[in-house]
Design brief:
Elements: E1 2-4, H1 11-19, E2 24-29, E3 41-45, H2 50-63, E4 71-73
Antiparallel strand pairs: 1-3, 1-4, 2-3
């Protein structure tokens, strides 16, 4: 998971650009939770190896001119199988 702190006026446009990128499986906006969580744009990037994902993130951030915005990369340690919604 790649998270960014994008100015509110720009987050929709940047989110749309990220969502169209190859390798970005999910991209969405969430509200910040100050003071603990400053990030408002989330995007999921899958890969086989950590180095592969880190290189893709660096390339995306440079090409889309996101390097001036704070970000964090959150790697999961467990692989979860996604399934459709189940209703009781």
């Amino acid at each position: 998971m790649l998270v960014h702190d994008i100015p509110d006026a720009s987050v929709s446009a940047i989110g749309e650009r990220l969502a169209c990128e190859s390798g970005v499986n999910l991209c969405y906006r969430r509200p910040r939770v100050p003071p603990t969580w400053r990030y408002n744009l989330f995007c999921m990037i899958h890969g086989q190896a950590r180095a592969e994902v880190e290189a893709r993130i660096a390339e995306l951030r440079a090409r889309l001119q996101l390097t001036d915005y704070a970000h964090a990369v959150l790697f999961s340690l467990t692989r979860f199988k996604q399934r459709g919604a189940r209703y009781a």
